[in-house]
Amino acid sequence: MENIINEFEQELQSNSLRLTGQRKLIYGVLSENKDRHLTVEEIHSILIRKGSGTSVATVYRTLALLEEHRLAGRLCLGDGCVRYQLLDPLEKHEHHHLVCERCGKVIDFMSDMMDVIENQALCEYGFQVKNHRVKLYGICRECRLKEKNEDSSAKGETVFRISRR
Q1: 81 is in an annotated binding site
Q2: Which end of the chain is more exposed for a tag (fewer CB within 10 A), N or C?
Q3: What proportions of the chain, in percent to the nearest 5, are helix, strand and coil?
Q4: Is the pTM of this model over 0.90?
């Protein structure tokens, strides 16, 4: 994590900004939860549990700064909550999101299909895509399995679970 913080500090310094203790803490929370998409409230709650007196306003300001420098990304799912996650500064492609309509789980995924679409937009329409966001809504594996098991139980069928080790 120290390496990630150093990269963050260099990015801030190259833009004449300082790495304050609060910025470091907020960046650290995102880094520790890089597989999750956290709301401002969740980030603030984690900071409070760690004993930080960082205000919600500071969390908002720091997230805006991280977004501006493409170090964090914002995800809006239409439920009124904005979620944030760290972005890999070395990653050239945008990642996409699979959103489960049952449990709300968000899964990151990569696909080169958008490259094909962007190239088509450029070749056929002269339109150069600068950015895109893809969210696919559906039902995740766990919820599908749960539904299948519930359906089987309702029909009186025996369900066997095989665990992988």
Answers
A1: no
A2: C
A3: 45, 15, 40
A4: no
